[in-house]
């Protein structure tokens, strides 16, 4: 008779007695003979150990129970705090042109950073060998260039995409590395999870250092109207306190008051985020009031006069929903009566989370710079590629224009809001949509030809002065939120930042958006978006690998067009605002790298001394928990 592949180990001594109400004794463990395995892989029995009562091989990965038994699916209506609405960014869903996959494949031709290794140990397993992979085993797959070993028999790595925003580009990228897409959002054996809707379960079951998860849990500190306003105010309060210290920020602020032009602003090389000039919030962010706070609401109603237009926006909506202009006393009186009636409604007090979304009113910029008589704004990107340490990048995007000529007195919002959802309401959209999105090169040529000499601007103003200013503003916003952002190894985020330029060439930040639009329904977007997504994933994978192995971040071999704004390797560890449980090894020479001594990628200057930030302010909080919706419409 053939010998069994398993043997039973029995306990000696008297049988274990179990009393009522006490824990049951441990069941006899079943040990299996180790299977032969290929170097660099882990047998399925290690990744998914069989229950003690059922010896034998585990079913295919993905069919084993993973995570909590009662895990809710992504987008569950029960998740109030972290859930946001599915993105319908600028929604070009009607666009039938898919992404430029050939361009995506060319952009990803650079050898990709390593992939990741995942394992899950059942909660009831007491086999110490069934624990997660060791650092050595993780690095074994990491050195494989992101692709599984051709000799491996285990499926994966797996990736999950929730929603359609950029899904084709992301899927193409992952499949080019040999990864496999899964459709069940509840599976916990993924390597990469990219979702439009944030779920509490995703963060609760996230395995730090083993998985990559898109969107920081509390990115609403930057990506909602109230969140950004509160974050910037907190930074201003902290700087005000610091200015009272002799020789501190006050002297610098007084000195800065005499700075005549933007070109004179001192700016250190990217990667330092230590500009000598301290930005004031009012220099780049329009005057804003919260209508969910009584004292701010009353302050606005008191100061309003008909010489200035104001715009009222929900804190976390998209596609221009709920936005309207306030031009006269009758419109303001109607808004005042509506807010008071809602505040007095007893139902609103009993169930505040069901009440209407909180709003802000913002001073409308009535003198925007016009392109051929049309209003426009500029979309740029803030990439948080890694949070342990923080690796922050700036990326160029594109300019968005309205179809109709700008008229500040018009009641048609499509002439005030540049997002494509509003522009698609025009019957001329399909005919003229290619002219509603300009590349940054096109914008730069127009500014050179039209305003360079007439207005005495710097040559290539878009790529010099404007770019510098956008980087300064992004740096300021990130540093304001940094002490409070959640940070775990594997979290990353791509945030869309919208800027408006007035006719004095002053740059204003309108808003920052989570889950920015990644659709490609016109030629410019087909040229821009795939490169943004692919370089984002390349940088995320490379910084993850280097953080996991304790290597120096620079140089970054996958960096192409993104510019490094902040290298957090010198920051205090762990980060004050995060929950960084993994400790990195001290940075040391990368003995395994074959690329030492090569020229650094653009914008990769090493950061000097760590940035010092003001004491952490209390969390800004709102009148009630808000449901985030990405891609808010802009004024």
TrEMBL record:
Entry superkingdom: Eukaryota
PROSITE patterns noted in UniProt: TTL (PS51221)
Compositionally biased residues, Basic residues: 8-36
Keyword GTP-binding: no
Region annotation (Disordered) ranges: 1-132, 575-635
Keywords: ATP-binding, Nucleotide-binding
Polar residues composition bias: residue spans: 75-88
Cited Pfam families: TTL (PF03133)
Name listed for the protein in its UniProt record: Tubulin--tyrosine ligase-like protein 10
């Amino acid at each position: 008779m053939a010998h069994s592949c398993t043997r039973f180990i029995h306990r000696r001594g008297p049988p274990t007695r179990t009393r009522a109400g006490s824990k049951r004794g441990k069941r006899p463990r079943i040990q299996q003979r180790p299977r032969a395995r290929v170097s660099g892989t882990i047998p399925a029995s290690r990744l998914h150990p069989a229950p003690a009562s059922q010896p034998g091989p585990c079913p295919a990965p993905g069919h084993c129970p993973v995570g909590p038994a009662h895990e809710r699916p992504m987008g569950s209506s029960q998740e109030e705090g972290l859930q946001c609405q599915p993105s319908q960014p600028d929604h070009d869903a009607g666009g039938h042109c898919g992404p430029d996959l050939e361009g995506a494949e060319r952009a990803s031709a650079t050898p990709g950073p390593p992939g990741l290794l995942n394992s899950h140990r059942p909660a009831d397993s007491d086999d110490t060998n069934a624990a997660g992979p060791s650092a050595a085993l993780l690095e074994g797959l990491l050195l494989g260039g992101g692709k599984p070993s051709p000799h491996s028999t285990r499926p994966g790595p797996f990736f999950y995409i929730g929603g359609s925003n950029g899904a084709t580009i992301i899927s193409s990228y992952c499949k080019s590395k040999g990864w496999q897409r899964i459709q069940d959002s509840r599976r916990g054996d993924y390597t990469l999870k990219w979702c439009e809707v944030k779920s509490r379960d995703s963060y609760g079951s996230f395995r730090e250092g083993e998985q990559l998860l898109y969107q920081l849990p509390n990115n609403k500190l930057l990506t909602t109207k109230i969140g950004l306003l509160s974050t910037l105010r907190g930074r201003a309060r902290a700087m005000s306190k610091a200015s009272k210290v002799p020789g501190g920020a006050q002297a610098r602020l007084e000195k800065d008051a005499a700075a005549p032009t933007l070109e004179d602003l001192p700016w250190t090389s990217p990667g330092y985020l230590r500009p000598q000039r301290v930005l004031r919030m009012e220099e780049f962010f329009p005057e804003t009031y919260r209508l969910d706070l009584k004292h701010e609401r009353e302050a606005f109603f008191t100061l309003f006069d008909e010489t200035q237009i104001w715009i009222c926006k929900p804190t976390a909506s998209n596609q221009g929903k709920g936005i309207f202009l306030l031009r006269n006393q009758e419109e303001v009186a109607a808004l005042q009566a509506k807010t008071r009636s809602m505040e007095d409604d007893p139902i609103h007090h009993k169930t505040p989370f069901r009440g209407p979304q909180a709003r802000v009113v913002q001073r409308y910029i009535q003198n925007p710079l016009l392109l051929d008589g049309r209003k426009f704004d500029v979309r740029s990107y803030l990439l948080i590629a890694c949070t342990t340490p923080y690796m922050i990048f700036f990326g160029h995007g594109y300019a968005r224009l309205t179809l109709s000529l700008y008229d500040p007195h018009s009641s048609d919002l499509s002439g005030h809001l540049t997002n494509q959802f509003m522009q698609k309401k025009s019957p001329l959209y399909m005919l003229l949509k290619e002219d509603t999105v300009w590349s940054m090169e096109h914008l730069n040529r127009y500014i050179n030809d039209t305003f360079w000499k007439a207005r005495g601007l710097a040559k290539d103003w878009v790529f010099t002065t404007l770019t510098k200013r956008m980087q300064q503003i992004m740096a300021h916003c990130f540093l304001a939120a940094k002490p409070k952002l959640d940070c775990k190894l594997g979290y990353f985020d791509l945030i869309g930042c919208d800027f408006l330029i007035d006719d004095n060439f002053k740059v204003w930040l309108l808003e920052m958006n989570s889950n920015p639009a990644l659709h490609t329904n016109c030629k410019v977007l087909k040229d821009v978006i795939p490169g943004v997504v692919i370089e984002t994933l390349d940088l995320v994978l490379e910084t993850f690998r280097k953080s996991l192995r304790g290597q120096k971040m620079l140089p970054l071999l996958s960096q192409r067009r993104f510019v490094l704004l902040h290298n957090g390797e010198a920051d205090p560890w762990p980060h004050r605002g995060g929950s960084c449980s993994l400790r990195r090894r001290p940075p040391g020479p990368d003995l395994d790298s074959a690329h030492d001594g090569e020229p650094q990628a653009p914008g990769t200057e090493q950061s000097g001394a760590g940035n010092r930030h003001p004491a952490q302010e209390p969390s800004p909080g709102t009148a009630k928990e808000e449901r985030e919706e990405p891609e808010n419409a802009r004024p």
